[in-house]
Amino acid sequence: MTSVDGELSIEDSRTSAKYRIPIRNNSILAADLVKIRGPKKGKSLTKNGDGLLLFDNGLQYTAIKKSKISARDAATGMPLYRGYSMEKLTEMGADFEDLFHLMVLGSYPNAEEREWLRAALAKEMMEVPDAVVKVVQAFPRDSPAMSMLLAGLSAYISAYPHGIPALQGSFIYHANPRLADKAAIKTTAAYAVVLGLVSCHRKRIPFKRASASGTFYSNLFTMMGMVGPNDQVDPKILDLFKRGAIYNADNGMTHSTFVLLTAASAFPDPISCLTSAVAAAYGPLHYGAQEAMWNNLQSIGAKENVPAFLEKVKRKERRLFGYGHRAFAVEDPRLKPVMGWLRELNVSEKTQPLFGLANEIDRVASKDEYFRTRGLSANADFYTAFYFNAM
């Protein structure tokens, strides 16, 4: 039990009863509030009887999980991964295997541990169930990628029924960390395989399987058809992607993370948990913001239309996606690195005309009292689409 930092003294004006609620880690337990009971008024409609309930619309002020994986740096607002800053991990040249070992398995790996994980991921990525290939390729090539991805993940778990707890009649992962770790590795590999199949199907190019000697990212690029002459991955692009992934590996209790934990609380297989999280993330108020923002820019058309568009935003007739962020009270600290990566990729108004339009929206909005007084500024999602497009 965490030590008590202090107490919250409460007097209920309805009953004159007094309560002392322990404060731990700057939080109180909702279960302690249930001890506060009001005057009985007829039949109770909740399982807590007449105990006080906490209502927090949207869980904006409620902590639902104590995490050892991520926290937020008080000075910069940047997420910390088990105490490691993003800057430190970038300096260390952290690859996917390093991040996975740190965040999922609990420690930054040594050379032997990193190689073991690399080989394990590569082995799983080399296994491509026929059912997944057939399901993905059954879609019209111009279908939304997310629809194909969700279907592919569902087909993937169907190829491994022994990994579905309900079919086995037991909690096969519960209290079995070793099996859970293996399932996490398979789930990660499945995600990469399905991404590769979807990418190649949409591009109308043959799918190339992962290599036993490849790293996670190099295999991912190969499977997605992101290769140059002689099927080689561009080392500059790979390095840039690796650095970008560090800044997007975790962002605390996001919507998709919450959905994943909710799904996991019923103890299904990890791939099903991932599928639920991916579906939730596609909303325009989460990772779908990048695609929604891109479509927004296309609909605006030209710089001279920006003021009129922003006026519609202020009247709530249009939505400006990629502006403001629930997790950051100030400017999104990820924005500066993203802009640096765009410069490395030579992104400009000349190479991507919509980039100039995005800059104009940013320029006009930054001088507008409506956006300034509400603390609304571009977040990383507002510009990340240009990063992926350049790749």
From TrEMBL:
InterPro entries: Citrate_synth-like_lrg_a-sub, Citrate_synth-like_sm_a-sub, Citrate_synthase, Citrate_synthase_sf
GO MF entries: acyltransferase activity, acyl groups converted into alkyl on transfer
One Pfam family matching this protein: Citrate_synt
The keyword Transferase belongs to this UniProt entry's keyword annotation: yes
GO terms for biological process, alphabetical: carbohydrate metabolic process; tricarboxylic acid cycle
A single cellular component GO annotation: mitochondrial matrix
SUPFAM superfamilies: Citrate synthase
Record's keyword terms, sorted: Transferase
Family: Belongs to the citrate synthase family.
Protein name: Citrate synthase
